[in-house]
Design goal:
single chain, 58 residues, alpha+beta, 3-stranded mixed β-sheet, 5 strands, 21% helix
Length: 58
């Protein structure tokens, strides 16, 4: 089973209709399953995955 690496949580806010009524909604984190060089599998956010690729390639 993959471990969750990131500490990010969903953002909450309101959806606003044309009549300005507010209903709650959440923007969930974009978690991706990533296999690391040592073979372990972790779940990290897409932004962290991009940063990891950037560091590995330089």
């Amino acid at each position: 089973m993959a471990r969750k690496v990131t500490a990010k949580k969903p953002l909450s806010g309101n959806r606003r209709s044309h009549s300005c009524r507010a209903t709650k909604h959440a923007q969930k984190v974009n978690l991706q399953l990533v296999t690391l060089a040592d073979g372990s599998k972790v779940r990290m956010s897409a932004r962290e995955k991009r940063t990891l690729n950037k560091v590995e390639n330089n």
